[in-house]
Amino acid sequence: MALTSGLAENSPLSSFQLITLRIARYNPEHDSAKTFMEFQIQYEKWTTVLEAILEVKKYFDHSVAVRYSCRQATCGSCGMIINGKPRLACFTKISELNSNIITVEPMNNFPIIRDLAVKFERLFDTHHKIKPYLIHDDNEITKDTKEFLQSPEELEQYIQFSNCIKCGLCNSACPTMATDSSFVGPQALAQAYRYVADSRDKGKDNRLKIIDDSHGIWRCHFAGSCSQVCPKGVDPAMGIQLLRGYMLGFRS
């Protein structure tokens, strides 16, 4: 274990509180195992885990690899394992973790690029597989078509699932993803429900055929861990169960 400690003299953080930030380091091109480097970081009550990681990159070790973008829990880029749980680093305040030691690791069930950055190809491939867009009949849209109106009740059927930001936290938490490399995953299944339940969509039968597979909806064991980690309040586990209602003919 490599150890780096001390405080950056020019750091903009001015709190007297300190935490030990443990960052997983691993490069699959030349490392045989994951190691951790430790850094003493100042923080204030509003300091996020991402800000602490960027402190390390700025003042201690520029080579730490981490993916981030919007810094406001919208883009879904900074997903990682924080103290054992999949979370968004930009959405997780250090003060809320109630620990003097913060350990950050790459998400489970994703190939590691380096350190905290993982590959999203599987997530995007399965998302694309379920046709994540509204499908209409060929003769349904004409030059006079303006918009397809919905009632509040119709909107309520799927609206929470449209909040998915494709951060991958649900797939990282899913135990089936860890044992079945071909499983479509909770993110894609929840999005399949989002479009199946949309009254404007005509692609239900096609989507149900896609997920009616040995590595599709029937591989879900309903652990519910996917719903526990979603930063946007989406409930993939519920979506999967509702989707099974369509599969079994209980819903139309």
What would you say this structure looks like, in words?
A hairpin with a 2-residue loop joins strand 7 and strand 8. Residues 1-10 have low confidence and may be disordered. Helix 6 packs antiparallel against helix 7 (204-211) and helix 6 (186-196) crosses helix 9. The strands form 2 sheets. The chain has a 6-stranded mixed β-sheet with strand order 1-3-2-6-4-5. The radius of gyration is 21 Å and the shape is elongated. It is α/β, with parallel strands linked by helices and 252 residues long. It is 28% helix and 15% strand. The N and C termini lie far apart (57 Å). The protein folds into 2 domains: 2-118, Roll (Ubiquitin-like (UB roll)); 121-247, Fumarate Reductase Iron-sulfur Protein, Chain B, domain 2, CATH 1.10.1060.10. It has helices at 49-59, 121-129, 152-156, 169-173, 175-179, 186-196, 204-211, 225-229, 236-247, and strands at residues 2-3, 17-25, 35-43, 79-82, 85-88, 101-105, 112-114, 117-118.
Terminal CA distance: 57 Å
Separate helix tally: 9
Sheet of most strands: 6 strands, mixed
Strand content: 15-25%
Task: Label the overall shape.
Answer: elongated
Going by helix content, strand content and strand pairing, the class is alpha/beta
Low-confidence stretches: 1-10
Give the helices and strands as they follow along the chain: EEEHEEEEEHHHHHHHH
